[in-house]
Write a structure and sequence with these properties.
Elements: E1 24-25, E2 37-38, H1 40-53, H2 80-94, E3 100-111, E4 114-123, E5 126-134, E6 141-142
Antiparallel strand pairs: 1-2, 3-4, 4-5, 5-6
């Protein structure tokens, strides 16, 4: 007989994982009143927009796991290394959401100071095509 107690079962067998719906309030960013709720892919599009538009570590109200670290990369060169860093920042920001399973198929385009990044987000609600556009001194815009 050892010093540690013997345990028959480490975890109960009748445990079921519960997933929460993606139902959320619809938000508007054009100054008009918001009303209604979103669910499914529309809710995921809004979640992606909010996450990538929020700088990580900047606002105390958000967890350190929320937001993206894209701002430090703005204004840097269009090198492959910069593109990889932006890709990692987007993936790292979005994969924190347990409804998001993968972020892939990145493509980059630059027109003057504006960089556009397109990618796919695989979610529990289906695949969402997203585009991020940013330039130095500007807020990140997501569509």
């Amino acid at each position: 007989m050892g010093l540690l107690p013997e345990v028959e079962e480490a975890f109960p067998q009748d445990v079921t994982l519960r997933t929460w719906p993606s139902l959320t309030y619809a938000l508007r960013f054009d100054g008009q009143p918001a009303f209604g709720k979103l669910d499914g892919q529309e809710a995921m599009k809004q979640a992606i927009l909010l996450c990538l538009s929020t700088p990580r570590f900047k606002h105390e109200i958000f967890s350190w796991n929320y937001g993206a670290e894209i701002e430090p990369l703005l204004g840097t060169s269009n090198s492959v290394l910069t593109q990889v860093k932006i890709q990692e920042a987007i993936r790292d920001a979005l994969i924190q959401d347990d409804r998001i399973t993968d972020v892939n198929a990145f493509s980059f385009a630059r027109q003057g100071e504006i960089m556009t990044v397109s990618f796919q987000v695989n979610t529990t609600e289906g695949t969402v095509e997203s585009t991020v556009q940013f330039s130095p001194g500007q807020e990140v815009s997501v569509s």
